[in-house]
Amino acid sequence: MQIGTTITQFLADEQRKLNTNQTDLLELMGQVVTACKVIATAVNKGALSGVMGSLDTENIQGETQKKLDVITNEIFMQTTERGGQLAAMASEEMDDVYHIPGQYPRGKYLIVFDPLDGSSNVDVNISVGTIFSILEYKGDSATPAAAEFLQPGTQQVAAGYALYGSSTMLVITTGHGVNGFTLDVNIGEFLLTHPNMMIAPDTKEFAINASNERFWEAPVQRYVRECVAGKTGPRGRDFNMRWVASMVAEVHRIIIRGGVFMYPKDTKDPAKAGKLRLMYEANPMSFIVEQAGGISSTGRQRILDVQPEGLHQRVPVILGSKNEVEVILSYHKDM
Ligand code: AHG
Ligand code: MN
Ligand code: MN
Ligand code: MN
């Protein structure tokens, strides 16, 4: 695939390659591309827009909502709801399933999304992102129930993320590899800049919020301890650590230069299995990571095989460079 191909041309070529007539998936991806462009503009305005800071409201996750959490959620919904490809949607920022308003046609896809990932970073001008996952809707109700969304990650038709960093990028998969596009603001188009992205199997870099160390399980404590021990420790080499607190930015760094990312099971809040959300964060990112040759696991199970039990379910996440994740998984087996 030629560098500089627009994302629209790329998706059309992809569809021809797949030899399907699924123009509606192509069209839906087009709507998502537009949503990410509009969100990029909103995020990029920063303090000039007057929408920095938090609201008084909490989302269903128990998180105080940033103004931009709510605004970007609205942008995503309004941009994608009227195209006729969606049966319903669900998001980190909405308690329940959002049904497509009666005046718009309905389609055969469900979309789940995290409109603003890493939103604690918006006020300090650090990278944030948008994550989405597309599933097929097999029923025929005009108001699909939450249960229709509870498909394991292996059922995803497409997934991707937008990264609003020093440049805006879109990284997508439809199950045939991972491709990255950079927004050319002069022409308003995403152009293919990172064809066939692959995660290096080996790495010396890990990402974890180390302030939670006392809450982790023994295998993760052991792994991090051994990394920190460096050259003279059991791993025999020095490691580097990064933590952006935006999953999109961490996963993107890992795809570009290798690494592992962990938000593991912990005892901080015994009611939760981890921090990250299976449907909005873990599944789409795991689909991308696997398509790029990496591994994504809860520590005990492949994330894409987890049978979801609720829209807002949380899950432990350990993902990234294949050989390094295998080390962490082997420590879980020793437990
Ligand atoms: P969100 O902003 O969508 O709620 O997601 C934040 C997530 C994830 O992006 C990041 O990896 C993690 O939370 C950061 O958590 P800590 O603040 O505990 O480091
Ligand atoms: Mn949040
Ligand atoms: Mn998030
Ligand atoms: Mn979010």
UniProtKB/TrEMBL annotation:
Species per Swiss-Prot/TrEMBL record: Sulfuriferula nivalis
Domain Fructose-1-6-bisphosphatase class I N-terminal, first and last residues per copy: 6-195
Localization per record: Cytoplasm
Pfam families listed in its UniProt record: FBPase, FBPase_C
An example molecular function term from Gene Ontology annotations: magnesium ion binding
EC number per UniProt: 3.1.3.11
Details of cofactor binding: Binds 2 magnesium ions per subunit.
Protein name (Swiss-Prot/TrEMBL): Fructose-1,6-bisphosphatase class 1
Assembly information from the UniProt record: Homotetramer.
Record-listed Mg(2+) 1 binding positions: E92, D114, L116
GO biological process: fructose 1,6-bisphosphate metabolic process; fructose 6-phosphate metabolic process; fructose metabolic process; gluconeogenesis; sucrose biosynthetic process
Principal cellular location given in the protein's record: cytoplasm
